User: Which sequence fits this backbone?
């Protein structure tokens, strides 16, 4: 009865849909950025057909987009249990392993996928990235003093929900608001930036300089070079041109402040 109500609300149809109809509609929602609605549809479809590989793969991709990584891993593992050589299930788990810093597990999963499906460009590209990245560094990175950078001189926009500035090696320079997970967030942002840069470079497009990451509740704008990366998050009501303008202005202020800090350090010596 619950599924019939969902489907009637989505499509205006009272008859009970097939699982594949549900998954196709969920895919359309996903492509439109309606991730939570898509996830609800997929969950209802899997109640009808709990061994549907397509459904579990779609669930995994949606969990990744919603940053529900444990659920994403479980969905891809379920798909793999149903079809042990499915390339998309192996690729999904490989991406999670790479994000977790387990380059070896990532490479093993991709090697399995390519052994069964040699003509798999996405797996080949990601394997190259995994093999080119350094092993995960578990050593404690040095933190800059919270007072080392003049936050007021960065002129953060009032519309931003949060801001983060980190070095390319994931050393946290500044975060607002700053919390217990700020270092973890900086490390994840730096890793994703390195992965994206490696993929872009492999495609002949050069390193990553700008990125826009659409989330369920906010949009994050990234600016990076070889030394540092900056992220600013805004609500979906902030226009892209406005957000990018804020990003470029804060980026210039960050660069100026870091240059000033470096000059002061040299004088102190």
Assistant:
């Amino acid at each position: 009865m619950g599924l019939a109500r969902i489907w009637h609300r989505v499509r205006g149809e009272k008859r009970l849909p097939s699982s594949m109809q549900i998954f196709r509609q969920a895919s359309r929602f996903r492509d439109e950025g309606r991730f939570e609605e898509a996830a609800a549809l997929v969950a209802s479809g899997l109640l009808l057909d709990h061994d549907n590989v397509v459904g579990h793969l779609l669930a995994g991709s949606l969990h990744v987009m919603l940053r529900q990584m444990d659920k994403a891993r479980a969905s891809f593992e379920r798909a793999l249990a149903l079809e042990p050589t499915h390339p998309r299930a192996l690729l999904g788990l490989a991406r999670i392993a790479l994000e977790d810093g387990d380059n070896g597990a990532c490479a093993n999963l991709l090697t399995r996928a390519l052994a069964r499906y040699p003509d798999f460009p996405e797996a080949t590209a990601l394997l190259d990235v995994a093999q080119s990245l350094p092993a995960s560094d578990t050593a404690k990175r040095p933190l800059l003093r919270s007072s080392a950078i003049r936050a007021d001189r960065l002129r953060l926009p009032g519309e931003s929900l949060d801001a983060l500035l980190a070095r390319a090696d994931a050393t946290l320079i500044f975060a607002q608001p700053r919390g217990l997970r700020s270092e973890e967030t900086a490390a994840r942002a730096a890793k994703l930036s390195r992965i994206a840069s490696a993929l872009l470079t492999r495609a002949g497009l050069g390193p990553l300089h700008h990125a826009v990451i659409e989330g369920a509740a906010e949009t994050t704008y990234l600016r990076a070079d070889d030394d540092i990366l900056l992220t600013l998050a805004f609500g979906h009501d902030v226009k892209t041109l406005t957000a990018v303008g804020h990003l470029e202005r804060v980026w210039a202020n960050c660069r100026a402040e870091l240059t000033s800090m470096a000059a002061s350090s040299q004088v102190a010596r």
